[in-house]
Structure formats: C-alpha cells, structure tokens
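General statements about sequence and structure are easier to judge against a single worked case. When preparing material for the folding task, we compiled for one chain both its residues and its backbone structure tokens. The amino acid sequence and the backbone structure tokens for this protein are reproduced below:
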Amino acid sequence: MTGDITSLLFLVVKGLVIFGLGLYIIFAFVILRQEQLMSHVLEESFEPVLRLVSVFHFIASIAVFLMAIILL
C-alpha cells in the first residue's frame, strides 16, 4: 500500500518538474525575443555577445528539458 502511494507521489513530482521546465523554456524564449526586439532599437557594441548568451540560454533550457524527460 505504501509503495503505491510513494510511486504515485514520485510520478506527480516528475510531472511537476517536467511542467516547470516547460515553463522555463517559454521564459527562455521570451528572453530571446526581448533581446531581438532590443537589438532593433539599440545599437550597442556588445550586441553579438548578448545575442549569443540568449541563444545559448534557450538551447540549454531545451537540452535540460530533454534530459529531464529521458532521465525521469
């Protein structure tokens, strides 16, 4: 009986982690989009670096999501 409750609780926690990481991907996409919009308005010397960081952040968030799906 306790094994069923424990496995059900673990399944719920897994689902919440996957859901949270999915929300984080949306957040990373918003950061990427905001950076693109900002680059059209402002002309800065560090713009390529900022774009690289935002793209890397988005790709890393997708990679963490995929790793969580595989490992969990």
Remarks:
- Residues 2-41 form the longest helix (40 residues).
